[in-house]
Amino acid sequence: MKVLVVGGGGREHAIVHKLSQSDRVEKIYCAPGNAGISKLAECVNISVEEIEKLKEFALQNKIDITIVGPELPLVEGIVDEFEKAGLKIFGPSKKAAMIEGSKYFAKQIMAKYEIPTGRFKAFDRYQEALKFLKETWYPVVIKADGLAQGKGVFIVRDFIEAKEVLDLMMKKRVFGPSGDIVIVEEMLYGKEASIFAFVDGENVLAMMSAMDYKKVYEKDEGPNTGGMGSIAPNPHIDKKTLNEIEEKILKPVVYALKKEGVVYKGVLYAGLMLTKEGPKVLEFNARFGDPETEVILPLLKTDLLEVIEATLEGKLKNLKLEWEDKKAVCVIAASKGYPGEYKKGFEIRGLEEVKEAFVYHAGTSFKDGKIVTSGGRVFGIVALGDSYKEAREIAYREIEKISFEGIYYRKDIAAGY
Ligand SMILES: Nc1ncnc2c1ncn2[C@@H]1O[C@H](COP(=O)(O)OP(=O)(O)O)[C@@H](O)[C@H]1O
Ligand SMILES: [Mg+2]
Question: Is 345 near ligand 1, meaning CB less than 6 Å away?
Fold first, then answer.
């Protein structure tokens, strides 16, 4: 089989790596890919939002299945376009991807079908939102409705802060149309967790749990990032909680969507707060998470291609996922300055010295035959072990072998577990 993976980050490297272990995969293309991915797949110089070009490529190269990593092309309807052209593609349709593309849509579904989530109000008029924010309790969470590259959510402590955020979204329109609707949400307290599931329109097959480290500095201080590390399984989710998440959240939302005429196929990602009253939804995503995928897929024993095919054919009911009885730890190496401004183009040395862990590339590319940094998050190093401690020790031992100017990583990933 010929497979095309859309994307070029650590998540896509992990997907490509897993696919490369399948006997039935003959050839993998990745658009646009990165320096690390190019060892396992042929990288194609098309960016993820060029849906027309990707479709032409898939048609010309007789791609059997396309797998979409990031949210943007999903929300813009890549799945619908490919299917119209008779191409097989793994991911939700444009309508179904609204569960991520519009937080308001997701909230309405949850409210209507009584799926546990924080109380909220939505506004499309500035004055009404302002009036509500004058009278409400604090803290509250203010969210832009649409995609905002993880920058559209603010926890505010008082009216002054709230007004600033509202101005940013609705007056200055820094998120463009994504801020045309603003959601004000109840603040939830607890541990955060994310659960991914394969969904075939009807059946839900939950994957192993994971936990990510969002803040840039140790002890969860500093600004949010795309993720500075991850571990799997999530030490805060036991069998009972996972079961509760499946029964009260994942299955009901897939059912709800179906009732509303939306067939969901692909990966469904639930971002959760584990509150005293049980797990509550913060948001849904319509794809694999990054950097959770980098710790989940290495533990998956089942052939990924088989799972993807079963998803597309609506046959997940007959499938059981098999997992390694191990722990996985991922430490992300970033460029100095990230998530603010940073420099690119520094040579990455020592990659070939890493023997006991995987290196999943994110922001890397080739320059004059050398691998150089080309993004804020540069790579993730992933180690497996019989305990979190063992995996953590391997990851940190191996990451020390790699260097580039301004390399930064948190030293506390998986610490204490
Ligand atoms: N209701 C809430 N209560 C407390 N924290 C929240 C709430 N909603 C969001 N957050 C925090 O903000 C982060 C981002 O919010 P989320 O809804 O996941 O949006 P996105 O990932 O699109 O930025 C969450 O991971 C969580 O840390
Ligand atoms: Mg989120």
Answer: no
